[in-house]
Amino acid sequence: MIKDYFKEIFIGGKSLLVGLGVTFKAAISPIVTVQYPREKIDVTPNIRCHIDLVPNPHGGDIQCIACGMCERACPSGCIEVITQKKEGEKGKTLSAFKLDFTKCSLCGICVESCPKDAIYFSNEYELASFSKDDFHFDLLQRLKERK
Ligand code: SF4
Ligand code: SF4
Fold first, then answer.
1. Which atom of ligand 2 is nearest to the CA of 79?
2. Which protein residues touch ligand 2 with a CB less than 6 Å away?
3. By residue range, what is the domain housing residue 126?
4. Domain count, the chain
């Protein structure tokens, strides 16, 4: 009986020391918790948020030539490329690039099918809203507003 009593004290004490060891180890480890949204971490370059238009680095607004390949390739039908024909200009120009992000599966087919590398996945992960309408974007308009 007395033997069991001391055995239990020993097991309890050992368990206490193991627990304190874990606590001590955590206390001296580097802090990995980020106080979001006040603090943010760099996201991986491979992140897939909504698609966005690539600005043209050689002048002009965009790289997109309004060919409509992405629109035809999208399996969810969430892209609408709206074009206009300007007088005196050859071909069409983009007047709006509509994205219904509520339907997008982030499959990447549009990005892969673009012959001009004119769209990419943005890293805009902080999208939250109570209204679906807030996920209908005109990517051309958004690009202009960012400039
Ligand atoms: S990622 Fe896929 S679903 Fe989303 S717009 Fe592109 S093709 Fe459509
Ligand atoms: S984003 Fe690419 S595939 Fe889509 S319309 Fe523009 S050039 Fe064509």
1. 4
2. 64-70, 81, 114, 116, 118-119
3. 51-146
4. 2
